[in-house]
Amino acid sequence: QIKGFLFDLDGVIANTSAYHSKAWHQLADELGVTWTEDLGNQLKGVGRMDSLNLILKYGHKENVYTEDEKVKYAEEKNENYLNLLNGLDKSEILPGMEDFIKDLSAHHYLISLASSSKNSPLVLEKLDLRKYFDEKVDPATLTHGKPDPEIYTRAAESLKLKPEECIGLEDASAGVTSINGSGAISVGIGDPTVLKDADINFNNTAEVTLANIEKAMDNKKV
Ligand code: BG6
Ligand code: MG
Fold first, then answer.
1. Per-residue pLDDT reduced to its tens digit, 33-87
2. Average pLDDT over residues 188-193
3. Which candidate in 33, 41, 197, 201 could, as Cys together with 192 as Cys, close a disulfide (CB 3.0–4.6 Å)?
4. Exposed, middle or buried: residue 157 (CB in 10 Å: 0-12, 13-18, 19+)?
5. Is 8 a catalytic residue?
6. Is the CB of 47 within 6 Å of ligand 1?
7. How far apart are alpha carbons 48 and 148 in whole angstroms?
């Protein structure tokens, strides 16, 4: 029986995944690494330093910079990202997501945040959605980021639930892998070829409703 929902933030609740991509693209250009859609998809959901390392690996530059230089580049990306967040408000909540979250709350499901982003408290605050979250995982306390299961295991734990009693929602391939590894049921939102490992797929957030999830669970018998 499902008792809890574990939410990714960027690309699931708000359109902020596009801002992360834009800021990484900007940094990749500066580092002379060619940006591709595939690289963009690989970065989705992945934490800050892991993302920078993926970009450098993609451009065969993994041994070019010192740790200090890498930290500086990661900070530069974050400053660019924060500039893109200027003026972020409720209008950038993805279609249907506020109603969906309210509906979960009204049905007494527990809700935890499983975002890799250290900026997630700020983003939730700007979207005025913080009040719906019973718990959240602080990504700074993780040993391993997505695709490792740790963040979803911890999110279930934060609600005092077993992962099997939870549904996780993700727009990123690394995130779906993380949910699946934890034992929770994975909902992939976006291109089903990219999110092919999800237990349940929706093309966009507008399709994500309790009724549609229940229907999909019946069909798949997950
Ligand atoms: C994830 C995003 O939610 O957070 C990634 O999907 C981002 O794109 C990651 O790199 C880390 O975010 P931050 O804000 O801590 O740099
Ligand atoms: Mg995401």
1. 999 999 999 999 999 999 999 999 999 999 999 999 999 999 999 999 999 999 8
2. 97
3. 201
4. middle
5. yes
6. yes
7. 15
Given the residues 10, 68, 148, 199, select the one marked as catalytic.
10
Nearest one of 99, 105, 97 to 8, comparing CA atoms: 97
- Using DSSP, state whether 110 is helix, strand or coil: strand
Sign of the dihedral defined by the CA atoms of residues 41, 44, 47, 48, in that order: positive
Check if 15 has its Cβ closer than 6 Å to any atom of ligand 1.
Answer: no
Helix, strand counts (H, E) of the chain:
9, 6
Question: Does any ligand 1 atom lie closer than 6 A to the CB of residue 175?
Answer: no
- pLDDT higher than 90, residue 154: yes
ipTM of the complex: 0.98
Predicted TM-score (pTM) of the model is: 0.95
Task: State the distance from the centre of ligand 1 to the C-alpha of 173, rounded, in angstroms.
Answer: 14
Q: Which atom of ligand 1 is nearest to the CA of 171?
A: 6
